[in-house]
Structure prediction request, 281 residues.
Amino acid sequence: MKERPIYYFIPAILVLGVLSVYPLINNIYLSLTTSSGKFELSNYTCLFADKWFWNSLITSLKWLMITVVGELAVGILLASLINLKVKGTKFFRTILMMPWMTPMIAVCTVWAWMYNSDFGILSYLVNSFFHTDIRFLSNPKMTLFWLAVVYIWKRSSFVMLMYLSGLQGISEDVYDACKVDGASRIRQFFSVTLPLMIPVLRSLMLISIITSLNQFTIAYSITNGGPARSTELIQMYIYNIGIAGFQYNYGAAASTSFLAVVLILAVLYISGTSKAEEGIY
Prediction:
């Protein structure tokens, strides 16, 4: 195969440098300076002493756990159902992809209406059927969970599609051999399907982690971080202090710290799953 000259990659390197490398370096530079350009660590010392920074970081980690586990569980359930050889699966596959194709801001608007305690259809149906007085967006302890339901509802379609591609790559002969050995469907799922899906699951979980930690629209559009800042994710904290609050250097310190947390989680996840995959195969 003929080798490509290195200068073929120059346009891509320039675009990547302008759009990714320079903003990253500039952000780190801003985080280490004051508004007057003086180098000091005051942004980080103030940041680590701010209880609302830690509150937003812990809230983001809670959000991460709920959304990733939820979307992976719902996604594999939907993929397993769609993978069944029954009539009408193509139609239901199309219907199930609609949440993923719907713009996020439209999803947030509709769900905010449904969650509304005064005229929301979801609030009315749930409270009428169960004879309760649930206010979805008023309880600081539960609002984050209800926002996660919106995220899982939208993201599970994409997860289902990724799972489905992996499921359809497993030969039917493997399941026929399991049936001959007398393995139940549950046994087949945990002993055959999941191990063979590890490569897909590994990539999908990394994508889910990064996407979940980058989420901003849902919390900002539906609750704006409330009630009592219980749904203020780290992205909202960075936006409120760095952009809306015009504290660019302080916001840069917050975003750099968050980047470090994401990198640590990514490295731990990749190294951990690599060892697990080696143990399986």
Observations:
- The chain has a mean pLDDT of 86.
- The chain has 14 helices and no strands.
